[in-house]
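Can anyone check this?
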Amino acid sequence: MNLPLANSARVKSAEQYSGGDPTQNVWVVASAGSGKTSVLVDRLLRLLLQGVEPHRLLCLTFTKAAAAEMSDRLFRELSRWVVQTDLELMATLRETTGADVDPATLVFARRLFARVLETPGGLRIQTIHGFCESLLARFPLEAGQPPNFEVFDDRRALDLLANARDGVLLDAAEDDGLSHALTTISGRIGELRFLDVINRLVGERGRIDRLITRCGGIAKLIEATFRKLDVAPGETEATVIGAACAGNFNEPGLHAAADVLLRGSKTDVARGEVLAAWLRRDAHDRAATFDDYVAAYLTNDGTIRKTLLTKASRERMPKADDILEKEAERILAVSERRRAVNVAIGTAALLELGDAILTRYQEAKRARNALDYDDLILRARSLLTQSDITAWILFKLDGGIDHILVDEAQDTSPEQWEVIFALAEEFFAGVGARDTLRTVFVVGDEKQSIYSFQGADPKAFEEMRHLFRDRAKGAGTGWQQVPLLTSYRSVPVVLEFVDRVFRDASAREGVTFEAEWSPHSAFRQGFGGLVEVWPTITATDPEKIPWDAPIRQVLASSAEAKLAIRIARTIKKWIDQAEMLVARNRPVRPEDIMILVRRRGLFFEEMVLALKKEGVPVAGADRMILTKQLVVEDLIALGRFVLLPDDDLTLAEVLKGPFCGFDDAVLFDLAAGRGKNHLWAVLQDRRNESAAFGAAHQFLVEVMNLADHVTPYDFYAAVLGGGGRAKLLGRLGREAEDPMDEFMSRALAFERDHAPSLEGFLRWIEVDEAEVKRDLEQARNQVRVMTVHGAKGLQAPVVILPDTCTLPLEDSPFFWTDDTDAALLLWTARKDGDDALSRDARERAREDRDREYRRLLYVAMTRAEDRLYVCGWETRNRRAKGCWYDLMAVAVEELGEEVEVDFGEEAGPQKAWRCIGAQVATVATTPEQQDLPFATQPLPAWIGHAPPREPFPPRPLSPSRPSGDEQTVRSPRDDDRDRFLRGNIIHRLLQFLPEVPDDRRDEVAARFVGQSGFWFDRGQQQNIVAETIAVLSHPNFARVFAPGSLAEAPIAGVIGDTVVSGQVDRLAISDNEILIVDFKTNRDAPETVAGIPAGYIRQMALYSAVLSRVFPDHTIRAALLWTDTALLMAIPDSLLRAATP
């Protein structure tokens, strides 16, 4: 029986053809490995074949990598069509569309590659953030954002947030409100937890900012929180206790019950003494001892004690039991009230602090004209759904987008869905800018929604499915929901195991919205594989570990380390013994193996270490904290030494590190017996005693001299380029390349936003805890150890799941009251401080966390192509109920058989469970991977030296900066300051207002001046607007600002020996003439042409000369527009010719 190989051409299913139908609105639910990307690319191809203009397609993906992959697939396929023969292309198009094509379609298909390449702006395959950025860039003023804004990446945003946080904490010393909030928070949690809570609060900035905006400000939000908790303004724990002590209870009955208790058993007497003592006090003293009184009725966990008096005491006073029970219920209600008040006060304090941090953060971004990723989504959503000009924006977009395709829809947040729905709503309205077929295509899988920490919500995925379905059907347009259940990735035995695990309701809950599990279908029928579940490893009894054992010995005796060693030795045995992958007819390779964990921790580090000890190639961590990498620690230590040479410990780090290479003996020889002398002074004195001392001294002197004259980036670039990189890689291996390169990138980023000092950079980098993602998809024949989140979208022939015996920890310090838009934030310092509302919110968060935990299991299991191994370690408390291991153990015991697995010296033979899929298909022999030989010839000499200075031609001519003398700019200080700023604003208005419709220019200009010139009074702002509008509407300037004229037009060329590269403020091109206009701001206009500075004349002459070569059939005219006086001054041709080189 001959069946196709796993990597052979796929046969498309009927569902895939339905999903790619360009005439239908389609919602594709694509299980893991079912070829969703192929369906999406096929749909793009079929839309293009149908004649849809490339610029009318919008494809939104979750990551830049996914967008790049999709673009690559599309262009690769289109380029293939160009070179195929007619028969080949006909077969290809038949496979793509599912139908025969005519000769005209063949011709059209071949032209698509060029057509797409020539599309202005390119084909729009981008992330949702990328689309929102382009949307805001197109409509900045309408979005309330100054043009030319910058988007901060996560690193720069976190840096700015940290500064905002630190600034607010410093301000608290002088701000009573902030000081009270800070005292309230810090009084409930320790120092370490305080920073964690503040950082988590900052991490929720987007949702909190939306919450504050929705409620109308922080004060209104706090009021809403108090109302939700049924707490009155001004109510405190003291007022609640005071009211409870005021006598609104059965005091006579309690006195009688206390007397009975005092005559009872030892337990009764103890309780009676507490009651009697409390009842004798006045209200003030009662409040001071209220907690002791509460303890007489309630247990430590806040429930009423089962027995409030003994049987004998009850017989003495039958009513005493009822009296004490009612008082206990009252005390329980008071305790609940105290908790509610504490939650309200604590939450209010946290919100006040959060609002102050967010306000400062927003101000910092505004000062830099910057947005973060959250801003992109929120501003775009507001622009498309809440703005008073939303209809106009949508109308403009309505003329440009006909088909929307959404990839990885399960990872889309509710706010992102609002943006997408606003774009697509007109598709179903029946009225649009154009009468044409318009469709929506969505592909995703709720089973793989694992990014809740980024706002993804599978419930939103389901709600949007129903919403789009109802709109499409209501509009009478086509609608299909297409399930893709055929996996092209995994062999049948793996898929059967996955299906069996999730067939149980306990495992399926929260993974899918379907009532029953839909089983997968395997494309790779007949291919063999296996699933194996190993016995778990338990922790060593701590009492058996010597109390003074080294930390490495303690770690090595942990269950995590033992499991890591077992896995590493098993992999080593597979490689040494050429373990066969029967589905591929070749031995297993290191690159075939992927070890997946839920999160990085002790096991992650032990796993990488164990593989290295066994000599198994391993790719290292998929994510890393930059400052915890050895290579970065070496670079930081070198910088610290340069700043403080007398720091002996830092110098010892540098000397023992790769740069100097001292071993322990050499370092001891240098350091021993030096008395009070610093190590650097000793090295200077002894530099001639040995080659090692001399080389180290010379290197350190050179870097010290270098640091005084260059920026941090140039300093480290010189160190690495001068042989330092080779030394680091020689000691630490090639895995040091990624952190080294990222370190240099951070140096550039630091210099972009800060003064370039080495001290400042080292401080900045040392407090950076941001993670750096490494691309392990292209790992070179190495085992990959990754988190499940990092492996999303990847696959491997062999997958090992070791992190299976624990449940997710409760990692959020605060909770949300519900899942609706009206949800409020609640914060309690401890679980025993929860009121009823907080308990419900905490339980709901736990349920959501457990549901995502099971979805994460589905993603982990479906990464396996041929083999899946399940193992785990248990703590002293054994494994958690409902953990991954338990869910999979049930399935393997039903499907498989018990076998004996030999774990060698580490554990010997042990019982395990195994499911085997027989190999039936015939597989062609695949030659073993062979490493390509490295070139043996030496590298050229120039590669180790810095490049020479840039040769002639000189620096290009910058826009509006002529070579030679330039007219002096008026001082922006003192009396001329406002005039200087006024001129800049007019310049900007003249740049973009011509593109705004005439009837809206006054409104847009006023809004821009109000934002950019807020220091001017209202009358001055109106004068600026009026003067600018007058220039634009003046008939003498009609040609300058006519439709089709260009603003900030780039010009580049070479005139003689002069390189010209600049931007013309305004360029008007007609059929036979070109007018160049350059704005001159904050400079006095000359009375005549003769008074124009020579530098300006030469600048315009160069621009004219370049354009005359580009447009030889056009007459070139040049003029200067003096913005202060609204004077357009033409430059005669004779002056231009005389100034041309």
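Reply from J.R.: I decoded it. The chain is about 50% helix and 15% strand.
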